[in-house]
Design goal:
By secondary structure, this protein is mainly alpha-helical. It is built from 2 helices and no strands.
Length: about 55
């Protein structure tokens, strides 16, 4: 059970970091690498549907 809580903490930390990066990045075209990684970051941040930046 202790391992499960540790994995949940890691998943929440990854989610929080991805959410911050997605919120601070104005567009996908700013940086070529970030543009390629943005879809992964949106997925990790759970930015789906109407939560996506258009």
């Amino acid at each position: 059970m202790d391992k499960l809580s540790h994995y949940i903490e890691i998943a929440l930390a990854i989610h929080a970091a991805a959410s911050i990066i997605c919120a601070l990045t104005p567009t996908r075209k700013d940086d070529d690498f970030l543009g390629k990684a943005y879809k992964v970051l949106e997925f990790l941040a759970l930015n789906i549907g109407r939560a996506k930046d258009r």
